[in-house]
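Rotation project, supervised by the postdoc (A.L.). Task for the rotation student: set up a whole-complex structure prediction and record inputs and outputs verbatim in this book. Inputs entered:
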Amino acid sequence: MKRNLLTGCEASAEGAIHAGCKFYAGYPITPQNRYPEYMSKRMPEVGGIFIQAESEISAINMVFGAAVCGFRALTSSSSPGISLKQEGISYLAGCELPAVIVNMNRGGPGLGDVTPSQSDYFQATRGGGHGDYRTIVYAPWNVQELYDFTYMAFDIADKYRNPVLILADGIIAQILEPVKFRKPKKKLPVKKWALTGCKGRKPNSIKSLFLTPGILEKHNWKLYKKYKKIEEKEVKYEMYFCNDIESLIVSFGTCARICYETVKIAREEGIKIGLFRPITLWPFPYKQLENLIKKIKKIYVVEMNLGQMIDDVKIANRKNLPIYFYGRPGGGVPTPEEIYNFIKKNGSNI
Amino acid sequence: MPSLKELVKRESRFVSGHRLCGGCGAGIVMRLVLLAIDKPVIASCATGCVEVATTIFPYSAWKIPWVHSAFENSASTISGVEAAYRVFKREGKIDKEIVFVAFGGDGGTHDIGLQALSGAAERNHNVLYVCYNNQAYMNTGIQRSGATPKYAHTTTSPVGKVIPGKIQWQKNLVEIMVAHGIPYAATSIPGRWNDLVSKVEKAVKIEGFKYIEVLSPCRLGWPHEPELTLEISRLAVETCIWPLYEVVEGKYRLTYKPKEKKPVIEWFKLQGRFRHLLLPENAHLLEEIQKEVDRRWEELLKKCES
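Outputs recorded:
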């Protein structure tokens, strides 16, 4: 099969286009500038709409507008810009509108820097904006997955009528890798709830404002049931070298890819270690990790932040095993050897 | 206005060592604005080329107190600083006369920062806002902005078979600011130092919100030969694409009138982003812009006469 050499931004954009996305609104921010640039060229070619908004807030609300009309709509940004989008994402979740948001995570807080980071884990997995809500979060570890997950995200978003987040980072956004394309989707789901003009049918109503006492609570319990269903059905994860293990690295995204190399080095040295990689950060694979933890004695968590996913690992760690954390906050990317040395030394117990 | 001799004797408060490109218009603007003010200055700056290139930690090109907060907030941040200053003054904790200046590029001023700018102007903070307008998001790789001129090529308004560059007209933010009823608004360029210096000097003496928009050539984004920065800014004035004027308490005044109005093509032909407009098949686009520039120029002349 033909492979295409693309940057992460371009691959994700193609994934969206192949999934039938016809609406993209974006705004410049490093390291995802290639995304709007690429879309400004590609969207007109496929008969879609490209809009460069005047701010990230505007872009996410354009996505809201397109989603409410039944479009497959997309926006991309990087950490500070994703912060600005949070209000819009909360409204999408409250109104149960499907949309895809891509975050090419860079170092924070504040202006931070423009290098890869995983510091938006909490923001991505705990809702991010105001109110009781969740977004489904996919964490790709290479450009192919970034393409695949973007392609898939639109189906999942439509299925649950919920915003879906792709949490990548500055490396995956800009690295060039070969990508295999999937078949472009021709038939898209019919959205009976969409606001398309009510001539000949009952008017649809989409809102997140429920002032009558008890109605909002009812609405939120409905959302809760949906989230429970997603937790049951949509968990994705991968395990590597986990057949005969005494210890385990838990890591996601770019960091997991580096840890994969670390595990290979450690295995050659006779260390019985494996790698557990959550692919959906929400819903987090608690059960699967818990099952694996039953077999081992030690857990290592490696993240490019100050320790965020470690909170979820702690929830899965009912056996109360020692957890050792290795973090690189602020845009630094660890090497496989660096993590290997940490494992050898064990680090400090948390 | 101080003479050039006097100006060069003043201590420069925007100094070398920054990482702006050779031939960048914005660096010249920053230096001239600070030279024109003979009082202590506190400045805020929006995210953009100037902010990134002049404050890479642990270095700074600014010999003044300087603050940055997010992309959209230069006007809000300086509003807070100026309001705090007024409180300190009222309480007798400070007696110095301080000039407050906010800097922003066109993205941070025309687009994402417009709300903050409008709010600061409406509250009439005693602030001078200087927009260095290089007509696109140059810091992130030349994406179109609300200030990008019609038919300019940018990375998000690429010239191709479907569109001949950006298809919308640029905002006229100076007029939007005049409509706020602020006491002073003006345009300027780095290529006429005396124009910029005298306007800044005049503005900071006025109480309330002041807005000066300076056309700032970008050798990478427009792109042009780096040694042409000043000349190209002057040519924008000579072609009446960027007229030099000021509006004091609603009263318009042309501060420079070209002896002979040059055709817009003279400005376009020095810049890569307008290269396609020179092709014979695009003559009608060039004509369209010439007509609009003429119309706006006549409109401005009328405002200045009345």
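Student's summary: The longest strand of chain A covers residues 99-105.
Supervisor addendum: The interface with chain B takes residues 27-30, 33, 36-37, 40-41, 44, 50, 52, 54-56, 80, 110-111 of chain A (CB under 8 Å).
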